[in-house]
Design goal:
Strand content: over 45%
Distance between the termini: 26 Å
Helix content: under 10%
Oligomer: single chain
Strand order of the largest sheet: 1-2-3-4-5-6-7-8-9-10-11-12
CATH architecture: Beta Barrel
Number of strands: 12
CATH superfamily: monomeric porin ompg
CATH class: Mainly Beta
CATH topology: Porin
Largest sheet: 12 strands, antiparallel, barrel
Number of helices: 1
Number of domains: 1
Amino acid sequence: MYRYVPSFALAAILGCAGLSAQAQDGASITGSAAPLQTQPSPSASLAFPSVFGATSAVAAPNGTAFAALSYVTPRGGVQGSDDDGDLSVGYALGNPVTGVSAQVAVNILGLDPFGDSGALSFSLSRMLRAGGTSATFASIGAGNILGWGDARRSDTTYVAAVSHIQAFPLANGVELPVQFTFGYGTDSTLSDDGRGRAGPGAFFGIGMGLTQNLAGSISFTETQVNMGLSLSIPQLPGAGLSLGVYDVTDNTNRQQVALGLSLAF
């Protein structure tokens, strides 16, 4: 999952788009008929529990436009290579509570030279249930659609995911938001022979709100462990930062450090 921009970008986008440990667009996780409160309470809510390195089925709010810039080093996880980056620009439309949320993005794969390779991605998300202090979402998605440049050499990728968000009560009325996500993708597993080949496999991740603005997560594929942090910026509504490491144990010999900057509006 080294070059699939949306999975990295969406973690930061969801964290800075005003989502708390609740569903969005029409229903809170305390009851499907209740209106959603998308803005967290300053005194009682922690950051949205985004997951780094694994696809989340939770949809961005209806009408959310986003841009996400990521920086990774080394390029392709090959030691001694230069650093590189990706850019994703997209839009989310639809209500996952009463219908389906659709997200489409244009992904620029590599910034040097800028724009010489890229592709489109598309996903659909639906809330399966909401009740008490939890909500469950499911999604399907496709990446590397209509690729150009080097991306034309790769096949279209597909992924399916289920994500569950649960808020656990703590002292003083604070709720600890946790996200569990798991799924299967056609390019989710990186080969462990050091050749960097992506193939089909399962993934699993856990994210947790740590403070009002900071969330941490760990995710697993069949060959690697990823860890990351996401930070919303209170002074810049809709802006967020992410920092993570793909393959922290370097089992695939393709370890990368990734830094992301995102904006949702």
